[in-house]
Structure formats: C-alpha cells, structure tokens
Structure to design on (101 residues):
C-alpha cells in the first residue's frame, strides 16, 4: 500500500486519509450503491467504540473532525486533528477500518 506524505511547514493540523479502491466503477448493476452504503456503515461503531456517538465523542475530545466520500473509483475516509493528536486519531481511524460492525 503506498504511503504519501505532503508536509506543510508550520501546519498545526494533520489529516490522515485512507483511500480504498472501491466505487461505482467496480459495482455490477445488482451491487449499485453498495460502496456508498458501506461508507456510511463505517461510522456505525466497532467492538471498542460501539456507536457513532462513541466515535464522535472520542474525536471531539481531540478537537478533531472526520468524514468520508465515495467516488467512481475510490472511497476515502479521513480524520483531521491537531498535529500532536495524530496517534490517537490513527487508532480511531484504524479501528473503524478494521473493526466496523
């Protein structure tokens, strides 16, 4: 998996974006909309963070924001936090990517 870094000198925030190769381009007629549906399911909770509210509350404590988007070829999931909070934000994002309900 490629890792792309784009440092901005003096930036006080950091954004971690994970791009997944999935989108309408790869869906059959029967699967139409599945990528976008799964994008929304990603935020429903994990074993460690059992609800949308739990995920939101943890990121709120960090002063962070998160979101996702679906395009024809990719679905992107991201978190944006103060630079010193990246480790905690990556833990949340990683949990959402690997442990979504």
């Amino acid at each position: 998996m490629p890792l792309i870094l784009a440092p901005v000198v003096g930036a006080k925030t950091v954004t971690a974006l994970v791009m997944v190769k999935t989108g309408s381009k790869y869906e059959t007629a029967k699967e139409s909309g599945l990528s976008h549906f799964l994008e929304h399911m990603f935020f429903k909770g994990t074993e460690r963070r059992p609800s949308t509210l739990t995920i939101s509350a943890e990121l709120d404590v960090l002063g962070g924001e998160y979101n996702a988007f679906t395009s024809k070829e990719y679905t992107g999931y991201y978190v944006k936090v103060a630079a010193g909070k990246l480790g905690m934000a990556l833990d949340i994002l990683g949990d959402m990517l690997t442990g979504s309900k």
Observations:
- Strands lie at 13-20, 65-70, 75-82.
